[in-house]
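Exercise 7.
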Amino acid sequence: RITGTLDEPDFDRLIAEIEGKLERHEKLGILADLSGFEDMTFRAGLKDARYGFGKILQWHRFPREAVVTDKGWIETLVAIAGPLVPFVEVRSFKPDAFDAALAWASEIEGGPNA
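Solution. The predicted structure, written as tokens, is:
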């Protein structure tokens, strides 16, 4: 769960967690709970873009990303950007549908998954 302003150390922790799971699992379903998210620092945004594009040849390892949010602008971003990301199905969910988001993100096929 991401709350408040996401800064560079926060993003470093997220990357470490993802990388640790990628060492043990072929594919990851991602659940991003952004219901308390407010903003992201510029440096965290750069790191996010660098990490995402650095993984471009591995995007198939992240077949589903569920984004939990109560913010319309994030839902709009998911609706617009989601279809542009190859190999990844992205959906937004309201906070009261957290369990459904978790179940959906967990439904990935092939190989040992997390």
